[in-house]
Amino acid sequence: MDVNEYLGLFLDESQEHIQSINTQLLKLEQSGGADVVQEIFRSAHTLKGMSSTMGYERVANLTHEMESALDLVRGGKKESNQLLLDTMFIAMEQMEDMIADIESGGQGANVDVSETVAAFQSFIGGKEVAVEKTSETSTFEIDLYTNSVIEQAKQTGFEAYQITVKLSDAVVLKAARAYMVFDRLQELGEVVSTHPETEEIEQEQFDLSFDVLFLSQETAEVIEHAIAQVSEVERVEVNAFTETAVSEPEVAVTAETIAPEPVVQATSEKEEAKDTKEQVAAQAQAKTIRVNLERIDRLMNLFEEFIIDRGRLERLADEVGQPELNETVEKIKRGTNELQSLVLTLRMMPIEQVFNRFPRMVRSVAKEIHKKVQLDISGAETELDRTVIDEIGDPLVHLIRNAIDHGIERPEVRLQAGKPEQGMLALRAYHGGNRVFIEIEDDGAGINVDKVRSKALERGVITDEEAATMSENELAMLIFAPGFSTADVVTDLSGRGVGLDVVKNKIESLGGVVSLETVSGQGTKFQVSLPLTLSIISAMLVQVGEESYAIPLTSILETTLLDEADILTAHRERVFDFRGQLVPLVYLKEMFGIESETKTQFPVVVVRKGNKLVGVVVNDLIGQQEIVMKPLGTYLEGIPAISGATILGDGRVALIVDSNDLF
Questions:
Q1: Rounded-to-integer distance, Cα 42 and Cα 98, Å
Q2: Element at 644 (helix H, strand E)
Q3: Which of 292, 487, 504, 647 could form a disulfide with 495 if both were Cys (CB 3.0 to 4.6 A apart)?
Q4: Are strands 620-628 and 435-442 parallel, antiparallel or unpaired?
Q5: What pLDDT digit, counting tens, does each position of 2-53 carry?
Q6: What are phi and psi of 595, to 5 degrees?
Q7: What are phi and psi of 5, to 5 degrees?
C-alpha cells in the first residue's frame, strides 16, 4: 500500500483524535465518568489502528499501552488515579511531537517514549486474564416475541446459542471482519439479534468484540470452527443460550428489539432523539468534503488576479464612457463581490483549532507553579483567515502564560484576599465589524502600576517627565516594551524580559492591535484586535510624486487638509494640532526619497497605532479601493515602512505602507 496517498488523511484524523483525547482527559480529571473513559478508549484504539496500518510502530505501541490501561479502567478492574492521568497527558504531548515529525517527513521515532510505556505497564501490572463467560450468563435480555421465536425454533430441531467473537488487536477494518463472520453464520443458521445492534457494528461503533444470538441445527463445535476460519478473529466462544429475562412490552417490537420492558418506555424518546441526531450528523457529513489547503490557496490566487483585472476593466469602462459597458461592469462588480465573500469564507477556519491547545497547557503551567486555575473558553467557533490562525497561536500562548504566572495569585494568597483559591482565566473570541477580537482576562492581582513605573524609570524606558504625564493604562502598556519585566526572580516561565514585546510585534505584523485594562486586586484583561483576512484588504490609495501608495483602512483614523501655516515644531519635530493633541508629521516623499512639487495646502492621512497618532503627508488622495496584497519576496524583504505590494487596475504596482513602522 502506498501510504503517501493516505498521509494527509492520517495526519488530519490523528490530530482530531489527539485533541479529542486531550479534551476528554480534562473532563476525566475534573468529574470522571465511564462515558468519558469510553470516549478516550475509542480514540486511542482508532489511533492505534491507523498508526499500525500506516507503519508508524512507535505511535501504535504507545497507544496500545494507553489502550490497555484504559481497558482495565472501563472494565472496572482498576480505578483511574492521578498518576495514570499525568501519564496520559505526557503520552499525548509525545504523540503530538511524533505526529509533527511524521508531518515533516519522519517516521514518528523522534521521541523517547520508554518511560511513558513503562508507566503504563506499571499501572497495568502485567497481562490481565480475560474473564470467561459461562453458559449461565447472557448478554441478551429478550422480550416475549423473541422468546416465542426461540421456542418455536427449538421445536423444529434448532438450538439457541450465544456467540462471542473477539477480533484481533491489529484488525484494521472491524466492520468488514464482522460482515465475514455474519456471512459464515448465515450459511449455518439464523441470526436473531446482536449486541451491539447491527447498525452500530456496521458503523464500527464497537470495540473488538460483539455478541450474536444465533439459531442453528449445527453443533457448537461446527459453528466455532467456521467463525475461527475468518482472518483476524482472535477468539470465539459458543455457549448454549440461557434466557435471563423475558419482558412483556407494551409497544410493538421486532426480533432485534432486545431491551427489557422497564427500559423501553423510559428510553424510547432518548433513542428517537439519538437516531435523529445521528441522521443529522450523517447528512452533515455527506455534505462536507475535505479540501487540500493548497487548492484553496490556488483558488485564492486566481481570484486575486481576477480582482486586479476587474479594477482594470472598471478603469477602461470609465475612460470609454459607454452606459451599456458601465452597466455590465457594475453587474460584474456585484457578482465578484459575492464571489469574493464566498472565496474568503473558504479560507476561514474556526479559532477553536488554536484554542483547543490551551486547556492542557493551562493545566500543565498551573501545576508547575502550584496554582489552581480554571480556564473558561467562549467563542471558539469564531472564524478567522487561515493565515491569521497559523500565526496567532504563539502570541496567545505568551499572554496566557503571563496571566497565570504574573496575574493569578497562589491559593493561599487568594484566600487571604477573600478570593476563591482557584483563579479564573477567561479566553473569549468574537466578531466586531470586519475584525475579530480575542480577550484573555484573569481575576488575579492586576498589574502593579507603581512597580511598572519604577522598573521603567530604572531601565530608562521612560523619563521622569513622561512618567508624570502618563495615565495608569499607558504605564501598564509599558510591559510590552522590549526587554521589560517586573519579575523579581528569573524562572522557566518569566523574568528574562522577552515575550510580550514579541507578542506586540507579531500581532501588529498581522495588522492587529493589542491593548489592556487592569484594576489592582481585581485582575487584567488583554484584548487583541485582528483583521478577518490579510489577502484582500480595503485601502486608501495616495499619490506621492509620480508614485502611488496604499494605506490600509484599518489603520486610518481620518483624512484632513493641512495648510503650511498650521505646521508647528515641538522637540525639533514637525507636528500639527489635531483636536487639541499635537500629532507628529511624516512626509512620505522624504521617507522614500521621492521628488515632488511643494504645495501650500496638502492632504494628511491620520493613522493610529494603539493610543498613538501620526499624520502622513501625501500629495493627493486617489480614493478607497480593495487591493490584493502580494509579498515583496526575499530580495526586497525588510524595507522600512513597506509591508507588501499590489497591482492597480492600470497595471502599475503600488507599494503598501506599513503604518506601524511610521511610529
A1: 20
A2: strand 642-647
A3: 487
A4: unpaired
A5: 556 677 778 888 888 888 888 888 888 877 778 888 888 888 888 888 888 7
A6: -80, 130
A7: -65, -30
Residue 276 three-state SS: helix
Cβ–Cβ < 8 Å for 101, 109: yes
| Cα 534 to Cα 294: distance, rounded to the nearest angstrom | 17
Distance from C-alpha of 71 to C-alpha of 245, rounded to nearest angstrom: 28
How far apart, in whole angstroms, are the C-alpha atoms of residue 482 and residue 502? 8
Q: Give the CA angle between residues 589, 595, 598 to the nearest 5°.
A: 80
Alpha carbon 8 to its chain's center: 17
Task: Name the β-bridge partners of 608.
Answer: 613
Q: 290-299, 307-316, 559-568: which range is least confident on average?
A: 290-299
Dihedral in degrees, nearest 10, Cα atoms 60, 65, 70, 76: 140
Which residues does 60 contact at the CB level (< 8 Å), separation at least 6? 48, 51, 52
Grid cell 494568597 — which residue? 413
Does the reported pTM lie above 0.85? no
User: Which grid coordinates belong to 391?
Assistant: 500565526
- pLDDT value for 593: 85
pLDDT digits 0-9 by tens, 42-83 = 888 888 888 887 888 888 888 888 888 888 888 788 888 888
Question: Could you tell me the CA-to-CA distances from 37 to 43, 69, 82, 84, 85 in Å, in that order?
Answer: 10, 11, 14, 12, 11
pLDDT at 142: 66
Residues 6 or more apart whose CB falls under 8 angstroms from that of 492 comprise: 368
**How far, in whole angstroms, is CA 20 from its chain's centroid?**
11
For the annotated catalytic residues, the residue numbers are 45, 67, 402
Three-state DSSP state, 553: helix
Residue 244 near residue 207 (C-beta atoms within 8 A): no
